[in-house]
Amino acid sequence: MRLPAFLHLPSREEILRKRPLGRFTHYLAASPNWHLHRRNVARGAAIGVFIGSLPYFGHVATILLICLWRRAYIPIAVIMPFVVTGPFTIVPFFYFAYQTGYWLLRQFHLAPELTIHYADIHRLFQGKVQLLRMGDRLWHAYWITWVGSVLLGAILATLTYTAILLGWRIWVNWRLHRRHQLRS
Questions:
Q1: What 3-state DSSP class applies to 1?
Q2: What is the number of other CB atoms lying within 10 angstroms of the CB of residue 145?
């Protein structure tokens, strides 16, 4: 059975042939980064989920560096940010991250006075207020979202790591049990 094109994971050789990687290919060629082992896959998925939950650009470069450092499975790590902040989940995720960050900062009495609300965004799109006048509010909203994203990303990464380790263990035990049943 052939997978659809968007589910195709590139092979080690396909990635190492990429010209822009140039002098970094010997780091990427390390075998622990490409072997399917339960800890490598769990580590890679957790790294991808955590980095993918942060509101900035350049996820793939950061993920590659951390995966090389922590010897994690690279292909799953590169795909996980698109699972967390894909086209259907990005808006609810960052809205929830903003709400979580604002709640957390309020608990420590660190929440800024200037926050952005729906009415401000509505006025911005209607042209009643300029983007430069909302600069401080947008900056505070960005940092509040960062705080919430770090917290949610850490929680999701921990859950992902644990779920993969447990799921892998259950799957292996089920296969061994099934094999034993077939022999009997």
A1: coil
A2: 22
